[in-house]
Amino acid sequence: MIVNATQNGWEIIYHRAHALLAAQLAGQWQRKNPPERLFETLAAISHHDDLEKEWEEYNLTVGGAPMDFTLSQEVSIERLTDLAKNARYRGRWVSLLISMHISRLHEPTRGKLPELDKFLDEQRQNQQRWREELGVEKAKVDAAYAFMQWCVDALRLVVRHRLSLILCQHELPADERFLEISLGPDHQRYDIMQYRNGLVTVQPWPFEDEQFTVNVEACDLFQVKFDSNSELTYALQQAPIKLLEWKFAKS
Predict the structure, then answer these.
(1) For residue 51, which of 83, 74, 85, 75 has the smallest C-alpha distance?
(2) Which candidate, 149, 147, 144, 146, places its Cα nearest to that of 161?
(3) How many domains does the chain have?
(4) pLDDT tens column, 197-223
(5) What is the model's pTM?
(6) CB 220 within 8 A of CB 10
(7) Mean pLDDT for the stretch of residues 24-53
(8) Residue 172, class by beta-carbon neighbours within 10 Å (0-12 exposed, 13-18 middle, 19+ buried)?
(9) Helical H runs in 12-113?
(10) Is the peptide bond before 204 cis (omega within 30 degrees of 0)?
């Protein structure tokens, strides 16, 4: 989960909600230059974090605070396998992109766990097989995944500045300064900026409409420290829910 400190406790955004926000942003992309298999790609984006089940996992730091995802270093082969396997129910294209997402996140740790190495080898083999079965060139698949990465922060353990996480982590700079998002699927650099009136813009403008609004649900915890994970889980289930919104506008 994404954890932001507030004056009275914590603001929590679930990873699946962040994935839905990323899909909202992806759905606004310009229609004249869409990624391959746009709607299936949107499905991959919206479901890329389906392995995250905050209420079922241990989510406390040593000090008893809710644990932000950037602090967790645990790698569960079982959970990664389930994510890859469950993606198959949405088709080979979704499976392919989610498999590429898994590879991008975990290839840097290759060599540390034999089980992980075996799993990553299987992902490479699956990706090649699915590309061949679908009859899609690797360049087109790579472009679609670059689009997905631009929206969902594929390198979240290394580079946190991707569009949906910039919004969720309140990292938009003050004083109308631009912040780089990343290179897009067209290898173009994109930057984001928030005006003093609250409007958000991206340069160059990559979206279809000149104005649109995206949102994500978050909950507020009015307690700084928790004695057990079950106490945190209960607090999350009882916490009030609020809607965070951002209005984008072409400059």
Answers:
(1) 83
(2) 149
(3) 1
(4) 888 899 999 999 999 999 889 999 999
(5) 0.84
(6) yes
(7) 86
(8) middle
(9) 15-27, 38-46, 77-87, 92-106
(10) yes
